[in-house]
């Protein structure tokens, strides 16, 4: 049993309850660019920015020992992971600590995703760890496996052909990552892990077996997202690659090029998989529209969004949020043609914004936004609905009265 831990919270309590709805934040060695990958034309000019609004945080949670590196929403729970190895489960709407675990795992936590009663965490020591709620106590999470599993390792270690060259004088099994795992995604019974070792690995959730290891990029993989059977990987090599699943293996379907000498740190995709947005180290937001076969893409958005690097992004319907090293979060409205324009700016963190997550449920006409930072804090914001007719960020609260966001 975990003892009750009282977090450091500054601000008023959240008065509007969130509804429970389970969600989570995502072998072919081909590295050739398809002839129809991304030849862009007819790029629309970005719309002028509307007057922006600043927000005040509803809560500031300062409990983590290190940088808040990853966030996930699962039903009534919010999970936050830290470079200090700790993972905290917060119960909404009052944001009390439900459980705290992860100290036994090796290396800083870089990413996490939730699936049912399991939590998958990616670590700096190049391992993925699997945690499950204890049967004896619902607020205790136990480590149940590590990827690659012992069974998978023993099944591969005896054959020399299963070893690959990772760097000079170093060899590893193909099922092992050779460097820090930076991102995770899941889709249709598969877990995907992206690493600084430039590879994308595919794991089967049922038996946690590694199915594929793809030499995906020429530099570190920083972001992953999966949708409609397609996986998008964002890399420090300045490319977002599109991977499709066919005949039980993944193949390259397209390459989305960023700016020269700029890396992609984050990638998000719309629910239908047709719109993809990437955040770059030069502060730009770029977006593409794909065709029905996901094998042809057109650039539709190219906006200078931040003064410093974009480190994270999240998408909820037609609202895109971008977190930056400039310590701000940009709130953007997505247009029908795929372009975006800024409708708000969130400030308050004392360090770069490392991760963002949104609640899938509407609250008072808007939604809850969670941000984690290098300042070791987790902040909670309420983002109101954008009024397309007036161009204002306003909403009607439960009292029935119109209210603008506090500045």
UniProtKB/TrEMBL annotation:
The keyword Repeat applies. CDD domains: WD40. InterPro entries: JINGUBANG-like (IPR045182), WD40/YVTN_repeat-like_dom_sf (IPR015943), WD40_PAC1 (IPR020472), WD40_repeat_dom_sf (IPR036322), WD40_rpt (IPR001680). Pfam families: WD40. The keyword Methyltransferase does not apply. Keywords: Repeat, WD repeat. This is Uncharacterized protein. It comes from Escallonia herrerae.
């Amino acid at each position: 049993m975990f003892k009750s831990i009282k977090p450091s919270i500054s601000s008023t309590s959240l008065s509007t309850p969130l509804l429970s709805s389970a969600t989570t934040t995502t072998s072919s060695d081909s590295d050739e660019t398809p002839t129809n990958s991304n030849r862009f034309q007819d790029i629309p000019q970005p719309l002028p920015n509307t007057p922006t609004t600043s927000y005040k945080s509803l809560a500031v949670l300062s409990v983590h020992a290190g940088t808040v590196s990853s966030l996930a929403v699962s039903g009534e729970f919010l999970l936050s992971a830290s470079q200090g190895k700790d993972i905290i489960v917060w119960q909404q709407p009052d944001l009390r600590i439900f459980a705290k675990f992860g100290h036994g795992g090796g290396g800083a936590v870089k990413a996490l995703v939730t699936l049912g009663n399991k939590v998958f965490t990616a670590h700096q020591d190049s391992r993925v760890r699997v945690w499950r709620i204890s049967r004896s106590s619902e607020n205790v999470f136990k480590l149940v496996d590590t990827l690659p599993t012992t069974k998978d390792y023993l099944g591969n270690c005896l054959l020399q052909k299963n070893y690959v060259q990772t760097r000079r004088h170093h060899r590893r099994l193909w099922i092992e990552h050779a460097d820090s795992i930076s991102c995770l995604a899941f889709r249709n019974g598969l877990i995907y892990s992206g690493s600084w070792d430039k590879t994308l690995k595919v794991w089967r959730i049922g038996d946690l077996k590694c199915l594929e290891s793809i030499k995906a990029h020429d530099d570190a993989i920083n972001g992953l997202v999966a949708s409609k059977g397609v996986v998008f990987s964002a890399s420090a090599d300045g490319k977002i690659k599109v991977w499709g699943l066919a005949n039980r293996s993944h193949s390259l379907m397209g390459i989305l090029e960023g700016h020269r000498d700029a890396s992609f740190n984050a990638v998000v995709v719309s629910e239908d998989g047709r719109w993809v947005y990437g955040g770059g180290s030069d502060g730009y937001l770029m977006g593409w529209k794909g065709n029905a076969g996901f094998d042809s893409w057109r650039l539709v958005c190219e906006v200078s969004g931040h003064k410093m690097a974009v480190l994270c992004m999240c998408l909820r319907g037609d609202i895109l949020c971008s977190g930056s090293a400039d310590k701000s979060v940009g709130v953007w409205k997505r247009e029908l043609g795929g372009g975006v324009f800024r409708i708000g700016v969130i400030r308050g963190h004392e360090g770069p914004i490392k991760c963002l997550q949104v609640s899938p449920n509407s609250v008072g006409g808007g939604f809850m936004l969670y941000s984690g930072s290098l300042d070791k804090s987790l902040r909670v914001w309420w983002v109101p609905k954008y009024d397309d007719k007036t161009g204002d960020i306003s909403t009607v609260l439960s009292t029935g009265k119109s209210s603008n966001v506090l500045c």
